[in-house]
Amino acid sequence: MPTSPQTHTRPVALAVWLIVAGVIGWWAAFRLTLERIHLLADPDAALSCDFSILVQCRANLESWQGMVFGFPNPLIGLGAWVAPIAVGVAILARARFARWFWWLFEAGMIFAIGFVIWLITQSIFVLGTLCPWCMVTWAVTIPTFYAVTLHLFRSRLVPAPSGVRRAADSLMGWVPVMTVVSYAIIAVLAQLRLDALNNLF
After folding, report:
1. What does the pLDDT look like over 58-109, one tens digit per residue?
2. Cα–Cα distances in Å, from 135 out to 64, 141, 190?
3. What percent of the chain is predicted at pLDDT more than 90?
4. What is the pLDDT at residue 5?
5. Exposure string (b/e) for 150-186, b if CB count within 10 Å is 16 or more?
6. Which stretch of DSSP H or E encloses residue 152?
7. The pTM is what?
8. End-to-end alpha-carbon separation of the chain, Å?
9. Three-state SS for 169?
10. Which of 25, 72, 107, 175 is the most buried (most CB within 10 A)?
11. Structural domains present in the chain
């Protein structure tokens, strides 16, 4: 059954997801920021997100990867996750965005997914840890990237042949499956590299 044009011009489901993902991502960034503050106040502080040698935040927060731009990475999340919340609320309020706005938003999503992929590889292959709040951020960034990108293609916001638009429209319903597959790939990598199942606690 074809999707009505209304779902393209006012994508309610996407708007709701942007709000939910933004709130979850912002909360994860906030919690990580608090943990970083605890470490600054007391380098020997016991962090609430440190469960084992494998599952912990400390190693990530204290590494150079944890402040790759010269300041703690969670501060990026505190600022960046406000954007999807604002966009989602605006869509529900029947706002219409110009093409250039969506392109900028997609540029932000491309940066986000690229940064997350890099952080995943650093966590698994270099630091050898799985940061709980970091994984929450990964978990919401991945489907948000898929959903926003597919929306741009199906809505003609990105020039593409009609076949590509139809494929993007169909794939929107598969975002949950694509997300689970992505999670599974990360889990397999963690298991192969870190023997995660035997070292969680």
Report:
1. 999 999 999 999 999 999 999 999 999 999 999 999 999 999 999 999 999 9
2. 18, 10, 12
3. 83
4. 43
5. bbbbbbebbeeeeeebeebbebbeebeeebeebeeeb
6. helix 132-154
7. 0.91
8. 47
9. helix
10. 25
11. 5-199 (1.20.1440)
